[in-house]
């Protein structure tokens, strides 16, 4: 019995792996669990600038949005959907008042990045991430990936931006 | 008389050129007029990220601060003063509310770069810019350099940051 159970689990696992890696259509994977980016893409801090961003409220975030070469090329050419291989990185920091800058200006007006809070990634792989619009989402705090509850919020939100292939950030010239 | 006047102007011009290009000490150039960066350094939009910045008030600016390879290396190694060849670029945009992002968030919290306002540069050349702490300052709006009155405000302000070689922006990790 133990052997049969093990075999069933092994087959189920194998089927799962095949379902994720085979060139399946998006429809075929509907209902399949989302998979996320679990490893920080190497070299992202050297990538080129896409834009900057600030969120008020609870987030209180200051962001630099960078892209790998595939991303930058697609952005500059206005190519949609983004091709496989595109990676977009959002480097988030706190949004803090700069006392040293304010002294120079003679008034309180200057904001700079505080401590890093998290880094988020969108990785385009239309097959691997077929259940989430072709995008793999990643969130890393102190180098560790976000938990599943957090990660399951990425796609439903980004899926509101279908007209621009789920990407909110526009290119700053 | 005309010839003598022309000769005097020619000599004065030559002396001026020599004074600017000879390896003169900073003290020797004190009182000499400042010279500015009058040409946009090529390729700056492809440079790596140093940090981001926001100024409230009249400026209402959103900035991405980028550096050429010499600048990035110096920043990452904490090298002061910055070596000759360092170029720092501040790409300024308006700081505007993003209606399309706010719709997704369901509340007004998102700010993005508006139209570009100006690009500013600091170019380190300890000989060429010896009268302004070794830095050449540049300001370009729609590709055109700022007038002399504006440009004369750069050095006195940045000179308040002597402890960090006149550079205000810190590196965002």
Summarize this entry quickly.
The structure is a homodimer of 173-residue chains. By secondary structure, chain A is of the alpha+beta class.
Report on the structure:
2 copies of one chain form a homodimer. The termini of chain A are far apart. Chain A is α+β, with helices and mostly antiparallel strands and 173 residues long. Chain A has a single domain, classed as 3-Layer(bba) Sandwich (Chalcone isomerase). Chain A has 5 helices and 6 strands, in the order αββαβαβββαα. In chain A, a hairpin with a 5-residue loop joins strand 1 and strand 2. Chains A and B meet through strand 1, strand 2, strand 3, helix 3 and strand 4 of A and strand 1, strand 2, strand 3, helix 3 and strand 4 of B. Strand 4 of chain A pairs antiparallel with strand 1 of chain B.
Top keywords for this entry?
homodimer; 6 strands; disordered N terminus; Chalcone isomerase; six-stranded antiparallel sheet; globular; 173 residues
Instruction: Look at the helices and sheets of chain A and give the structural class.
Output: alpha+beta
CATH class of chain A, named: Alpha Beta
The radius of gyration over CA of chain A amounts to: 20 Å
* Average of pLDDT of chain A: 87
Low-confidence stretches of chain A: 1-28
The multimeric state of the shown protein is: homodimer
Proper CATH architecture of chain A: 3-Layer(bba) Sandwich
Count of extended strands of chain A: 6
Helix content of chain A: 25-40%
Our estimate of the beta-strand percent of chain A is: 25-35%
Distance between the termini of chain A: 65 Å
Profile the largest sheet of chain A.
Answer: 6 strands, antiparallel
- The sequence of SSEs of chain A as H and E is HEEHEHEEEHH
Shape of chain A: globular
Strand order of the largest sheet of chain A: 1-2-3-4-5-6
**Could you say what the CATH topology of chain A is called?**
Chalcone isomerase
